Amino acid sequence: MFVPVRFTEIESNMKVCRQLCIEAKDKGACFLSLPECFEFMGIPGTGDALAAAQALEGGKVAASSDDTNGALFSRYQQLAKEHSIWLSLGGFHERVS
Asked: Number of C-alpha atoms within 13 angstroms, CB side, residue 69?
């Protein structure tokens, strides 16, 4: 199943992933592999992907600098637990110092 990622919408992509988890479990899957840039692709040439990149510290990546919903990776961990499915998070934008 091909589901396009929303280039600049982290929350929309989270909703798509949630729906994919539900559909995968309904079909008996125990593993779901997501593509590279699953959380945020950005628009080429704009620098928005670099601007959205987050530092990975202690296994957590904040969804944004003003993230009020918890660290992004914690949310994906919770999603996997909630649906009893392994998630392979294809790749993400990591800021390094």
From this structure: 12
The answer to whether residues 43 and 7 touch, using CB atoms and an 8 Å cutoff, is yes
Per the CB < 8 A criterion, the answer to whether 60 and 6 are in contact is: no
User: What is the pTM for the complete model shown?
Assistant: 0.70
Residue at 18: amino acid letter:
R
User: What is the rounded CA–CA span in Å between residue 91 and residue 97?
Assistant: 18
DSSP 70: -
Residue pLDDT, tens place only, 51-69: 777 666 655 555 555 554 4
Q: What is the token pair recorded at 65?
A: 């600098």
What DSSP assignment string belongs to 12-64? HHHHHHHHHHHHHHHTT-SEEEEPTTSS----TTS-HHHHH-B--BTTB-BSS
Question: What would the two tokens of residue 43 be?
Answer: 């628009």
